[in-house]
Amino acid sequence: MARAALFDVDGTLVDTNHLHVVTWWEALRQAGHDVTMHDIHRAIGLGSDDLLAHLLGEDRDQDQDARLSAAHTALYGTYFDRLPPLEGAQDLLRELAGRGRRIVLATSAGGLELKALRRAIDADDVITGVASADDVAEGKPAPDPVHRALELAETDASDAVFVGDTVWDMKAAARAGVRAVAVLCGGIPRTDLEEAGAEAVYDGPADLLGLLDTSVLAQMERG
């Protein structure tokens, strides 16, 4: 059975979380919703429908959801040609692939947004597959994206590690039975990530790469 490294994208490999915060804030503001950026930040990583339910409540006017999502997409789309990869992201994926890990992305992004993210990472030659928002019935924190990533990697949960930056990533990995590693570059506090199931926490991709030989991924290789 192949071993796999599964990765979230936004905030984990590409420095986009705060862009999402600002563009969701503006989309909500334009529709008359007063939501703090702090609360929006904590919801980043959820799919659009779940994010709106988390921020506005289940009793909101759901007829607005499509318009709010479209407004966010339009605002965020202005950054597609300059999304910044996080330091060490490409090198980390290439190093893990060189060590025999199958690299699969598990993200709530889809369509043109996903294309822009993959262009920013610039490592398609070592990425085995992508479990996107277009491929699953439920997004994180449901385990569906992780289950789909395992299918694409053709491996079992016991032979995979998931790397993400939000509590939703950690919960999705835990529910799928996959060991989880967190990074702080998405802006979520260490304690929140650990409480959600992170087995180890690193500053970002470059930090994980520098400490790779003592990481959970290396432990599994030796095991």
From TrEMBL:
<dbReference type="InterPro" id="IPR036412">
    <property type="entry name" value="HAD-like_sf"/>
</dbReference>
<protein>
    <submittedName>
        <fullName>HAD family hydrolase</fullName>
        <ecNumber>3.-.-.-</ecNumber>
    </submittedName>
</protein>
<dbReference type="InterPro" id="IPR050155">
    <property type="entry name" value="HAD-like_hydrolase_sf"/>
</dbReference>
<dbReference type="Pfam" id="PF00702">
    <property type="entry name" value="Hydrolase"/>
</dbReference>
<dbReference type="InterPro" id="IPR023198">
    <property type="entry name" value="PGP-like_dom2"/>
</dbReference>
<dbReference type="InterPro" id="IPR006439">
    <property type="entry name" value="HAD-SF_hydro_IA"/>
</dbReference>
<dbReference type="InterPro" id="IPR023214">
    <property type="entry name" value="HAD_sf"/>
</dbReference>
<dbReference type="GO" id="GO:0016787">
    <property type="term" value="F:hydrolase activity"/>
</dbReference>
<keyword id="KW-0378">Hydrolase</keyword>
